[in-house]
Amino acid sequence: MRQSRPPTQRAERPGRRLLERHRDLFDAVEVNGFFTSTLDHFNNLARAWAARHGKPTVGNDDIHRLRQLDKTFSLIDAA
Prior knowledge:
globular
């Protein structure tokens, strides 16, 4: 029986190589506003990758209830 890997290990497999190879296709890196300990790990990976490649981060939020609104935002200086 094949064991599944924890999500933290799966995030660093083939997708990471593709991301590095095609990094010029990305204008920004998304950080998810739905903070859990699992997603925070992925957010930290995203922030670190963005910093290494000089990419801005943008926030998103997957809200289902009004009380979840106003946790994440993106401030874009387009001047």
